[in-house]
Amino acid sequence: MNKVGVIGAGMMGAEIALSFALHGAVVLLKDISLDLSTAGKSRIEGILATWEEKGKIESVESSKAIERVIPQDDYSGFDKVDLVVEAALEDIEIKRQVFSELDKVSKKDCIFATNTSSIPITQLAASTSRPDRFIGMHFFSPASIMKLVEVIPGVDTSEDTIGKTMDIVREIGKGPVRVVDRAGFLVNRLLFAFFNEAWRIVNEGVATPEDIDKAVKLGLGHPVGIFQMQDLVGLDNALAVSNILYEEYGERFKPSPLLKRKVAANHIGKKVKKGWFDYSK
């Protein structure tokens, strides 16, 4: 994969771009403004600087990866890419608009992939003229480190597109798992069952978020606490996924009132320096 496009330069989009750039691909990193896409590249530079300090990457390799990422606010050059990965906000209408625009500028054999964590792939594919070359590629945060990518075909996705996507995932050093197109796919259905019980435990006063995180790390071997994880991905995102799962599967995924109150107060995680934990210090 020599050249790819990534739509959305936030935390996930920047990390996805880095995953490709580290393996030799030129990445067109697009957002709605040049300031946002440039900030995404700065995020990548910060990640690589930390890795250099820890001896995880050589400075030459780091510099080459940074050079391969091109921030932009339009679709120039997207007619030359073989793959576009969309990592826009988890909103079906925003994503449909993005793919409608991409469909007009991308070459006919370009594969469109969405990083949605919960929206059915077939619904998004219907907004394009290429449902056979449309697929889900769900990365996990932080995408530059986490090895799993869920590969989710839509109803009309061709076996050729599925095979190429599985190969691309392996080329960037990750492990693909093929999943049927149902809301939440595989990992989020498991994860939100865990989240829901953790929210109930806090709401019942059985344990604090701090103690729950300590318990899952020391007792279950998780590298990151589940409340810390929610703060990293954003409680607003968690609520959006909860709503989608609730609509699809009913009461077992009903959004927690506790989560709703946190989002209403704009305590949505590390990006605003306050979520389950305080990051202002």
General description of the model:
By secondary structure, the chain is of the alpha/beta class. It folds into two domains: about 5-180, NAD(P)-binding Rossmann-like Domain (Rossmann fold); about 185-270, Orthogonal Bundle (N-(1-d-carboxylethyl)-l-norvaline Dehydrogenase, domain 2), CATH 1.10.1040. It contains eleven helices and eight strands. The protein has helices spanning about 10-20, 35-55, 60-70, 90-105, 120-125, 160-170, 185-205, 210-220, 225-235, 235-250, 255-265, and strands at about 5, 25-30, 70, 85, 110-115, 135-140, 150-155, 175-180. An eight-stranded mixed sheet has the order 3-2-1-4-5-6-7-8, sandwiched between helices. β6 and β7 form a beta hairpin. α1 packs across α2 (about 35-55) and α10 runs antiparallel to α11. The longest helix has 20 residues, at about 35-55. The radius of gyration is 19 Å and the shape is globular. The N and C termini lie far apart (about 40 Å).
